Amino acid sequence: MIEELAETLKAQVVQTHTSWVLLLKDVVYKIKKPVNFGFLDYSTLEKRLENCQKEVLLNRRLCQWVYLDVIPISLVDGQYRLEDPSNPVEYAVKMRRIPEERLLKNMLDKVSKEDMKRLANHIADFHLKAERKDEYGKLEVMKFNTDENFMQTEKYIGITISKEDYGFIKERTEGFYSKYAELFEKRIKEGRIRDGHGDIRLEHVAFLDEGVCVFDCIEFNERFRCGDMLNDMCFLSMELDFAGREELSKAYEEEYIKRTEDKEAELFLPFFKCYRAYVRGKVNSFLLDDPHYGKKEEAKALAQRLFKLSRSYAELIP
């Protein structure tokens, strides 16, 4: 189906482990693969349709100009037809194509601190209006996530993370839970746990003529999307630090903290950034076990750098 559609549309095909993306000049069609990874289930047509609808609905909160519709793909007279509802065999998310040069990852030498402040306000406004999800702010939920990280990365000790760094990050993380347990409850009561984005990264931010756009949020799993507002926003500041743009990261964080009036931000930021860098180190380590991935040395080096960044944040955890 994908090859036939690509040929008919003269589209470029990009694959991820969860979807096929058909790139045309002005639009993009994103088709979900029939996969089930436990934390993500696209195994039936009904589930793929439901997740396409969620993707459009959730992403329009932060990027209203890009997500156009969910469209059916029908099989008619032996041919696959886009936007034909007569015999749906698949569904796709139809999006406006964002020019590569408008993505933040490709604009790091052009953007200013003022741009970062605009972005911070865009995300802060979104968080402050988003639905409360108090249950995801509990200490045991955050601890489940960090425990899972340490368990899943133990096999990479001596490969992408040193034994000393692994032990140090784990110790600082556990110490934070012991020392500041009551603050997790306080943040829940203050309404700081929201239905967020879950993946605010350099490649998911664009500066368009209409305004700032943050796209490609996590639609398939609430545990990955919902949580502390500060944890959601600081994924991006961690990536800015990693890219060597600490001054942009600082401007972004300061504006966000001011806008959200977060009194504990100074305390929680190193903890959450340590967590975010660790997750990225973990994900890149996983690529070493993928038999189909061809750039393993690159993934290994990237994971090593991310774990070192996580260690540097751990040193700042009070």
Describe the structure.
There is one protein chain. This protein is of the alpha+beta class and 318 residues long. The chain has 2 domains: 2-97, no CATH class; 104-314, Alpha-Beta Complex (Aminoglycoside 3'-phosphotransferase, Chain: A, domain 2), CATH 3.90.1200. It contains 10 helices and 10 strands. Strand 1 (12-15) and strand 2 form a beta hairpin. The mean pLDDT is 95.
Write the layout of secondary structure elements.
Elements: H1 2-9, E1 12-15, E2 19-23, E3 27-32, H2 45-59, E4 67-76, E5 79-82, E6 88-96, H3 113-129, H4 139-153, H5 163-189, E7 193-195, E8 205-207, E9 212-214, H6 222-225, E10 226-228, H7 229-242, H8 246-260, H9 265-286, H10 296-314
Antiparallel strand pairs: 1-2, 2-3, 3-6, 4-5, 4-6, 7-10, 8-9
Entry keywords:
318 residues; alpha+beta; Aminoglycoside 3'-phosphotransferase, Chain: A, domain 2; 2 domains; six-stranded antiparallel sheet; two-stranded antiparallel ribbon; globular
